[in-house]
Design brief:
alpha/beta; six-stranded mixed β-sheet; three-stranded parallel β-sheet; 16 helices; about 45% helix; disordered N terminus
Length: about 350
Amino acid sequence: MKTDDGSAENTVLFEIQGRTGVVTLNRPEALNALTHPMVRRIDEALTAWEHDPAVHQVMIRGAGERGLCAGGDIRAIHDDAKAGATASPAFWRDEYRLNAHIARYPKPYVALMDGIVMGGGVGVSAHGGVRVVTERSRVAMPETGIGFVPDIGGTYLLARAPGELGTHLALTGAAVGAADALLCGLADHFVPARRLDELTARLAAAPAHEVLPRYADTPPPGDLAGRRPWIDHCYAADTVEEIVDRLLGHGDPAAKEAAETILAKSPTALKVTLAALRRAAGTQTLERVLVQEFRVSCRALALPDLVEGIRAQVVDKDRSPRWSPAALEAVTDAEVERFFTPLGAGYELEFPEAGAPR
C-alpha cells in the first residue's frame, strides 16, 4: 500500500485504487480524530487528484472498526485555549476551507460513514456528494455538550434538515443511526457493514453511481420520523427557554428526555447554537455559513465554557461541567450577538471565491 509522504505518524494515508483516490484516516486509537496536519494533507491530496485524469472519484474511510472520525482533536483545542488560543483558529481556518472544498469537489466524493461520525468527521463526509451509512453508524454534532457550537458547516446542514429535526439534533447533540441520518439529509445510501469491503473493491473499477445500486439496501427503522409532530412543534419556538418549556409540557417521555438533555448543556452554547441555526437557514451558500461559524468558534475559544466542557467530558471525565453562566436566563441577547460580530481585518475566514449556491 502506498502511503502519504512517509511521515513518522502516518495519521492519514493516500493511495489510488484503480480509478479511485482513497483517503484513510489513520488514528484508530483516537477514533481517527483530525489534527491540523491531517487536514492540510487531505486538502493537498484532493487538489492533486482533482487535476489527475487517472482519478475519476475519491473515497474517504476510517481505519479500525470504531468509526470514520470522532471529530477534531479536542484535547489539543483545550490545551490551546488554556495557553492563549493561537493554534485553534489556524486549524479551523484550514478545516473549514477543506469542508467547502469537499462540497464543491468536481469529481464524485464517496464517504464511508461507518461507525462513529461526529463533529469534524461530519465535515469530511456529509458535504460530499455520495454518503454511505451502515447499521453501525452514529452521526452527531455534539458540540453543545462541551460548551461549543456546531461548526464545520454543521449549522448549514442541520438548518436544511426537514422541519425542526436539525434544531433537535443541534441542541441535544443526539447521535442518530442510518435511517435518521438519511431522513435528515446527512447521508444518501445505506449499505450493510459486512458489504463495505466488497463495495470498496468494486469502486476501484467502476463509478459510484453504477456500483452503489447493487449494494444499497433499506436501513433498520429510525426514531425521528415518528417524533416529527412534537419535534416540529416544540423546536419551532423562538427561544431555548420556550423550547424547553414546550418539551417538558408535551407529555411524550422522549420530549421530556430531550428537555433534560438540553438543560445539561452549556447555556451560552445552546443560545448561540439556536441563533446560528436560524441565521444559517437564511444564508444561501455554505461558504457564508462557514464564515459565520468561524467567527462563532473564535469567540467561543475565549470563553470559559469550552475549556470547562472539554475538561469535564474528555480530560477529567467527571461529566459534571460547571457552566458560566449556569442558567439560560442569565445569557443575554447582547452576549449572543457578540458571537456573530466580525473579527476584524486580517482575522476573518475568507474564500477565494464567494461560492455559488450548491
